[in-house]
Amino acid sequence: MAALGWLTPRRRSATARSVLAGEAAAEAARKTSLQLEREREEAAALEAARASGAEPEEPEFPVAGDVRAAAFFDLDNTVMQGAAIFHFGRGLYKRKFFQRRELARFAWAQIWFRLAGVEDPAHMQEARDSALSIVKGHRVSELMSIGEEIYDEYMADRIWPGTRALAQAHLDAGQKVWLVTAAPVETATIIARRLGLTGALGTVAESVDGVYTGRLVGELLHGPAKAEAVRALAAAEGLDLARCAAYSDSHNDIPMLSLVGHPYAINPDTKLRKHARDREWRLRDYRTGRKAAKIGIPAAAGLGAVAGGTAAAVALHRRRR
């Protein structure tokens, strides 16, 4: 921590939490990737994921057999239309994990974030505390099982075919592909498994003996924490970040995108689009003429405002052992 001595105590604390969250996510991702690999070997190839009729728009650069290259994909509005935690939250609300008044409270923080494009610390703190209280005492296995059902109910039909084709191009080149998201690592792992990806980096919530304690390990895997997670995983996997690719829709992920040699802006918000153009990053936009897209609101904006609230209700919760 000596290298952080020049920072103020508040900034030093925030940086330390980002590092802790990133390292915890990387550790969880490596464990789950081994499990996903075994499952893929036993399961049928998932050609169905590519049978959407989309014309593959493959990156120009994946080098077949380059084991020191990998790809990192943000999830919300990059791989999936809308927020994964919103969809997961809808499923939890349907299963009566929380009441309507809690849904409304979570929604307000999400509405602020989506419309203003900034995170209010007070909103983030309230959303985090509320969401963690919802899952506290529940078993990790219970929410994993529910997550599988919710994927089929709300998420499977919301994968962007174009982004899916990009991910497949990396897989076809023999490269590993990771999701990197603020969504709970359990939810992210389910999505990675269903898409045939290597694994997932996500927010890690603490659990003891398979039961959530209501605390996070570090903080949400968001913004700088994502970059820390990618850096930690790359070091553990022996990757050369200059040969890696990263994909995101949000300016909040500029720290992650800036780490790699091949950054992509996918369905970018206004700030990321400008940043990408200034730096001549590649852009891809799979949306269809929505004005909402121009101001950075999720593709599922109508539901996304409320859903993201529930989304927050799950963004913060869990740790799997």
TrEMBL record:
Pfam family, one: HAD
TM region positions: 295-316
Region (Disordered): 39-60
Keyword Transmembrane included in the entry's annotation: yes
Keywords per UniProt: Hydrolase, Membrane, Transmembrane, Transmembrane helix
GO molecular function (one): hydrolase activity
NCBIfam families linked: HAD-SF-IB, HAD-SF-IB-hyp1
Family in the record: Belongs to the HAD-like hydrolase superfamily. SerB family.
Protein name: HAD family hydrolase
Organism expressing this protein natively: Streptomyces omiyaensis
The organism's taxonomic lineage, starting at the top: Bacteria, Bacillati, Actinomycetota, Actinomycetes, Kitasatosporales
